[in-house]
């Protein structure tokens, strides 16, 4: 029986707290295994990577090259249906256009005391992109990670993807080429993260690693953080839909299930002031589940983590959304813009009942890599900023230095940092 | 004997690799202690925080309130010399002006197919600011962390600072008031991080924690990451100075020592094509060390981690800078702008011999919280972006949905996500 909450119930505060505390992630402790693999790759390079790959993926680099060849990529592309290739290009182009608008400007100005101030954005020199193996390799995720890197100006974009028993999904190789990936290696797991972070004889180290992976990959990314940059470690996906009577129940149900089919621990929540709509959606979910290919997954997600919350009205809905801080927020209401103004915590907002999240997952343009598990309170979806770094600039002439020296020397002295103070005083004394 | 490298030496590649590998951080493994403290604070709240504070800081919350009072702040402010108060305000105002220029714009546009796209930046609702106790509590760092948060629009800015034996530095409380901190609690260590992350009866949980701390604080921040956001865990500070014959040797030496006085594991490196300047700087460092109050620290840093690198010319210097990716880069050369253009990896650049890093540490305006230990390759200094999050927006009408539906459904089908495809198809079928 799916969870149903009502803000007018006496038990609501407790019920909602339980929903917020819903533990959807159980990460196995793989730290010690991962630690050993990373140390081994750092020490022995290619030899270690080859051994782990033989053991875990049953691929022998004595017989198959570690790097995926241009011929393999061409063959993969030829094996993918034309409509999929065209859809990938369509998605790539829209993602690129949207992310180009995010590119920030450099700044440089002279302030009233004559100091030159500013900053400069530069792309990361190299980025590693982890792509999971087998069916978990979503070409759409590959585009969402790779295209913003290319838009930011990253020149070297190194993809790693495990090839269990030698198999690589053709659509993934085709998507990599379309996205502008510059190198591909058929390795995975913690050994691939180690190779990207430390470098081996065959693979030059990168500056940052992005992309989803299993518990081993996630643990390895956490451990190499500092040596290289990493993206956020994503949790299970989630959607909150706020709907009023203007929204068709079957469409709301379809969107709840689109989220639920991802994973047994995905979460779909409907918030509505209409008990009628709530009832209709509940029935529509049950009916649509009957014919869904991924029924088992979607049913478990909806049963174990789904919820319908009955509220008084939109202000209350907005307040609950802010507490949930969902990855995806659909506003299937008559005036979605007005409601969007009341919400401050969400990774992405989908405005109106004609805007299914699935369009955003694939082709709208905004990134589908978004903060999960309430982290939208303090973080944002993937963007060009994840592939840029900022260097600040300061330039002084004697007049500007004289204008700033006094307070700086006062503070240096008050902090007991005399060499700091002297580094300023010495310049003022110089002729 | 300080390290001296020369790119014309046969051993240079090895020497430079050794310099890059210079291990300046030895973090004690405090994970299990920290884990226990965090679990205890999460479970028992105020009671646990009070126990740890009594044990570690010898402060009893039965006698002294956990929250610092308005009277204490007023008294602290009265105890700080006027020139220090004025210098703090001067710094605050300049930091605010610089960071206001970083504030990004919201974006909203309609694309050729009629889709509404955009994004919106909102401030984090609440931020915790860790300030170390005793002499390690630098008021300048407090301003550098707090002012950008206030500029970003963060309403609730919660400072924690340990009060060993009940003592709080008056200048730190004064700086907190000047910076716009809204709550102050006299707690520190992992227990303070736990209180900020999980909340207690007295302290509401925050969304992100920033600020420097010891090994326990750093480990605690790493462990609560995910529950809340955290800033980068900073390593020891470092400067690289590229200088030519136009730079006065005594000034270069003073700047090398200003860095070295921070910490025995701070690092100061001079890169120059002039063996003459190199010799003069080396002598000037020795002479200036004689009279430096923090001589022991600066001498150890310069001896153990300092280096002078002799290069052929500016192109070679720029290439080495990029490999070092320093936190601070001073360009004490005739044409610093031209050289700055050749460098891509640095946290902050100081242009010309009249621009001491110490001005940037205190009053210039740019942030002095910068990426250390080569992390400028993939990250940036603290900025308003650390206190903002971005929500992307997508809105479709029927025509826009129809224009995007085909490729999205093709990709959903190719990924085996039928409920995704159906969530689109169902809308197209609806009248």
TrEMBL record, chains A, B:
List the Gene3D superfamilies hit by this protein, alphabetically: 1.20.5.1300, Nitrogenase molybdenum iron protein domain
* Active site feature: 327-328
Q: Quote the record's cofactor note.
A: Binds 1 zinc ion per subunit.
GO: which molecular function terms? Answer: histidinol dehydrogenase activity; NAD binding; zinc ion binding
Which reactions fall under this protein's catalytic activity?
A: L-histidinol + 2 NAD(+) + H2O = L-histidine + 2 NADH + 3 H(+)
Pathway(s) annotated for this protein in UniProt: Amino-acid biosynthesis; L-histidine biosynthesis; L-histidine from 5-phospho-alpha-D-ribose 1-diphosphate: step 9/9
What is the top EC class of this enzyme, as a single word?
Answer: oxidoreductase
Recorded hits in Pfam families, A to Z, give: Histidinol_dh (PF00815)
Family, per the entry? Belongs to the histidinol dehydrogenase family.
This chain's protein is named Histidinol dehydrogenase
Q: Which organism is it from?
A: Acuticoccus sediminis
Q: What is the lineage of its organism?
A: Bacteria, Pseudomonadati, Pseudomonadota, Alphaproteobacteria, Hyphomicrobiales
Q: Which gene encodes it?
A: hisD
């Amino acid at each position: 029986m799916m969870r149903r909450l009502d803000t007018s119930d006496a038990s609501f505060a407790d019920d909602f707290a339980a929903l917020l505390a819903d533990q959807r992630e159980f990460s196995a402790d793989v730290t010690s295994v991962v630690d050993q693999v990373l140390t081994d790759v750092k020490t022995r390079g290619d030899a270690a990577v080859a051994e782990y790959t033989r053991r875990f993926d049953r691929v022998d680099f004595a017989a198959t090259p570690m790097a995926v060849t241009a011929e393999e990529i061409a063959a993969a592309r030829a094996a993918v249906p034309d409509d999929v290739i065209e859809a990938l290009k369509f998605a790539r182009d829209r993602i690129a256009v949207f992310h180009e608008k995010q590119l920030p400007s450099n700044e440089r100005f002279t302030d009233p005391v004559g100091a030159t101030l500013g900053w400069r954005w530069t792309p990361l020199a190299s980025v590693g992109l982890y792509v999971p193996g087998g069916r978990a390799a979503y070409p759409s995720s590959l585009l969402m990670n790779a295209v913003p890197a290319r838009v930011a100006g990253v020149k070297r974009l190194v993809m790693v993807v495990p090839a269990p028993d030698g198999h690589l999904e053709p659509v993934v190789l085709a998507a990599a080429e379309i996205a502008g990936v510059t190198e591909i290696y058929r390795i995975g797991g913690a050994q691939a993260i180690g190779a990207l972070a430390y470098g081996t004889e065959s693979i030059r180290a990168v500056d940052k690693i992005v992309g989803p992976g299993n518990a081993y990959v996630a643990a390895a990314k956490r451990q190499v953080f500092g040596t290289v940059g990493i993206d956020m470690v994503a949790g299970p996906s989630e959607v909150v839909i706020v709907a009023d009577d203007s929204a068709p129940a079957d469409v709301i149900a379809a969107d709840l299930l689109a989220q639920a089919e991802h994973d047994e621990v995905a979460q779909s929540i409907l918030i509505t002031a209409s008990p009628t709509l709530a009832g209709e959606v509940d029935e529509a979910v049950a009916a649509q589940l009957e014919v869904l290919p991924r029924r088992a997954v979607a049913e478990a997600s909806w049963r174990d983590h789904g919820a319908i919350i009955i509220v008084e009205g939109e202000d209350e809905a907005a307040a609950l959304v802010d507490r949930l801080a969902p990855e995806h927020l659909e506003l299937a209401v008559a005036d979605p813009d007005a409601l969007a103004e009341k919400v401050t915590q969400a990774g992405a907002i989908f405005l109106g009942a004609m805007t299914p999240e699935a369009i955003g997952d694939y082709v709208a343009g905004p990134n589908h890599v978004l903060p999960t598990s309430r982290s939208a309170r303090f973080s944002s979806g993937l963007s060009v900023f994840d592939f840029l770094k900022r260097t600040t600039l300061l330039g002084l002439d004697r007049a500007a230095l004289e204008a700033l020296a006094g307070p700086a020397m006062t503070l240096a002295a008050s902090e007991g940092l005399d060499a700091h103070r002297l580094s300023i005083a010495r310049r003022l004394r110089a002729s």
